[in-house]
UniProtKB/TrEMBL annotation:
Protein name: Glycolate oxidase subunit GlcE
Enzyme class, UniProt record, top EC level: oxidoreductase
Domain FAD-binding PCMH-type: 1-179
PANTHER family reported for this sequence: D-LACTATE DEHYDROGENASE, GLYCOLATE OXIDASE SUBUNIT GLCE
EC numbers, comma separated: 1.1.99.14
Chain's gene name: glcE
Annotated keywords: FAD, Flavoprotein, Oxidoreductase
InterPro entries with a match to the protein in the record: FAD-bd_PCMH, FAD-bd_PCMH-like_sf, FAD-bd_PCMH_sub2, FAD-linked_Oxase-like_C, Oxid_FAD_bind_N
Length: 366
């Protein structure tokens, strides 16, 4: 472990966190789990006593040779990425940083990934193990630090995207990857239909593409890999060079497209690969295609039922990113069907019998 990593690994407040959870469990007190509090917009508001995770931070262990790092949940993503970069390594799922205070625990809890997700994998694909505070205030370890570790592995992955509703993440072990040897981003002029056809064509070929987006008549691509492969693909595709900051702006919603609009809500449409443009009354300028078209950001005044029905018919779903207090949907996540809701309820009842962990964060009923 580097000197910087060792210096960061001395803020362990797990005992205090366990004690607060034990007290909340005994008194049936709801807890609002908070790290950097940069993703509060993602989900329903939670009323409860604050369980502050930001001081539980630092890198517990890091083995660059084995490509494994274990980090406390309150660690800022920027700090973790800086340590990994010293060894020419990275978090391949590109967790969004909605602010400097964004923590790795929040990234896992929300399960959000950046532009590389379709080509590298989602957050849960890189989670090897976790330490979790249970409803009784016990600190338990699930999974481990190797890809083939089976015991508890699925429960660790289940925590990704659970928004803290099943327990309190204290430590997470990740598989990390080397930073690509070469990278080049480019832009091409394409209509939407032509861009989607081009992306479908490129997707059938072994090309070093790790990000693909379209907006307002332009197709954006990122190439990463070996120098010769990136250079050959760059020469084949042509286009204008694109600054790498474009992908950070898209990932972190700092691109001008994401500027707040008093009259329109921001929605994320998740769709199967190669889905054609949806029959929605939304101008092209109000749609930003990411993940080669599988993730589409839209700004619209259309109601939730219309958006969700259209997405559902195409095999996808729609999530509202604008809080209800600012004109977004009352329920940001697509309602569960009866069978899936039953499993959600049973799991919640088993792991959080008294509903103390972020109650109502995902759905009003649990």
């Amino acid at each position: 472990m580097t000197e910087r990593a060792m210096h960061a690994a001395d803020r362990d407040i797990a005992d205090a966190l366990c004690e607060q959870v034990r007290s909340a469990y005994a008194e049936r007190t709801p807890l609002r789990i908070v790290g950097g509090d940069t993703r509060a917009f993602y989900g329903r508001p939670v009323e409860g006593q604050t369980l502050q995770m930001a001081e539980h931070k630092g890198i517990v262990s890091y083995d660059p040779v084995e490509l494994v790092v274990t980090v406390r949940a309150g660690t800022r993503i920027n700090d973790l990425e800086a340590v990994l970069a010293e060894q020419n390594q990275m978090l391949a799922f590109e967790p969004p940083l909605f602010a400097e205070s964004s923590t790795i625990g929040g990234a896992v809890a929300t399960g959000l990934s950046g532009p590389r997700r379709p080509w590298a994998g989602a957050v849960r694909d890189f989670v090897l193990g976790t330490r979790v505070i249970t409803q009784e205030g016990k600190l338990l370890r699930f999974g481990g630090e190797v890809m083939k570790n089976v015991a508890g592995y699925d429960l660790s992955r289940l925590m990704a995207g659970a928004q803290g509703t099943l327990g309190v993440l204290t430590d997470i072990s990740f598989k990390v990857l080397p930073i690509p040897t070469a990278t080049h981003s480019l832009r091409l002029t394409y209509s939407l239909d032509d861009a989607l056809k081009k992306l479908a064509e490129l997707g059938r070929q072994p090309l070093p593409i790790t990000a693909a987006a379209w907006h307002h008549g332009e197709l954006f691509l990122r190439l990463e890999g070996g120098k010769s492969s990136v250079q050959a693909t760059q020469e084949r595709l042509g286009g204008e060079s694109l600054d790498a900051s474009f992908w950070r702006e898209l990932r972190d919603h700092t691109h001008t497209f994401f500027q707040p609009d008093d009259d329109q809500a921001l929605w994320r449409l998740s769709l199967p690969p190669n889905t054609a443009p949806l029959a929605l009354d939304i101008p092209e300028t109000n749609i930003f295609y990411d993940w080669a078209g599988s993730q589409r950001w839209v700004k619209t005044t259309l109601d939730a039922n219309t958006l969700r029905a259209t997405c559902n018919a195409a095999g996808g779903h729609a999530t509202c990113y604008t809080p209800h207090s600012q004109g977004g949907a009352v329920d940001p996540f697509t309602p569960l069907n009866a069978v899936v809701e039953k499993y959600h309820r049973n799991l919640k009842a088993e792991l959080d019998a008294h509903g103390i962990f972020n109650p109502g964060r995902l759905y009003a009923a649990f």
